[in-house]
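Need a sequence for this fold. Nothing fancy.
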């Protein structure tokens, strides 16, 4: 059963060593991500699983490591040969900052169907009595003229629908084709979360697009644990 969830973005610049002199620009996002991930620790979960988008669907063991060397600096998450994709590498980095350990890392293909995503979510939610999930998910990269995908007028309402749903501890219906057109890297991972089936309380901790890409941080917690 899913008892807590955190949703965070996975830009390499979230890691200060990669941001260099511009690291302070994402301080608020780092703080929000820390608060979201902290909810996983506070949930008293039996297992923490990490989900993120990648080129293909792969399950990794708890000791899988990642590196940010392809993005400029060889910052490592975990020990051993780096095998994790970007989303899960940043996810592991976030957990390590909070001294948390995952029971497994799950990459979901960017092109996975909603049914495939929901199926994985259901299986992950059933892996332990109390499951907490860290979901690595960027919003659209088409929010401004300087965005990686340039400006698309559909991007802002698309991201707003995601944020409004996360605030209700829900995941909206997300069309894979439209998500691809809007460069929404987190679509599949979010739909994994949506497949978990839960009745939690949602809270948005961050919602902005500092580099023309939608970044949001959210936490879902049990209503009995509201602070």
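Here you go.
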């Amino acid at each position: 059963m899913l008892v807590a969830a955190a949703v965070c973005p996975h830009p390499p610049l979230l890691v200060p060593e990669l941001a260099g002199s511009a690291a302070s620009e994402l301080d608020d996002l780092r703080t929000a991500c820390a608060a979201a991930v902290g909810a996983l620790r506070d949930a008293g979960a039996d297992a923490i699983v990490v989900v993120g988008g990648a080129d293909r669907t792969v399950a990794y063991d708890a000791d899988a490591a990642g590196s940010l060397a392809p993005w400029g600096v060889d910052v490592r998450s975990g020990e051993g040969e780096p095998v994790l994709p970007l989303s899960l590498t940043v996810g592991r980095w976030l957990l390590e900052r909070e001294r948390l350990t995952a029971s497994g890392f799950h990459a979901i293909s960017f092109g996975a169907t909603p049914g495939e995503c929901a199926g994985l979510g259901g299986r992950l939610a059933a892996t332990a009595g109390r499951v907490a999930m860290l979901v690595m998910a960027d919003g659209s990269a088409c929010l401004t003229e300087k965005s990686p995908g340039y400006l698309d007028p559909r991007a802002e309402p698309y991201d707003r629908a995601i944020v409004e749903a996360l605030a209700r501890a829900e995941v909206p219906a997300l069309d894979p084709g439209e998500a691809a057109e809007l460069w929404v890297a987190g679509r599949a991972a979010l739909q994994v979360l949506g497949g978990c089936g839960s009745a939690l309380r949602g809270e948005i901790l961050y919602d902005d697009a500092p580099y023309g890409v939608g970044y949001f941080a959210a936490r879902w917690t049990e209503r009995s644990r509201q602070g």
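For context: Residues 67 and 76 are 5 Å apart (CA to CA).
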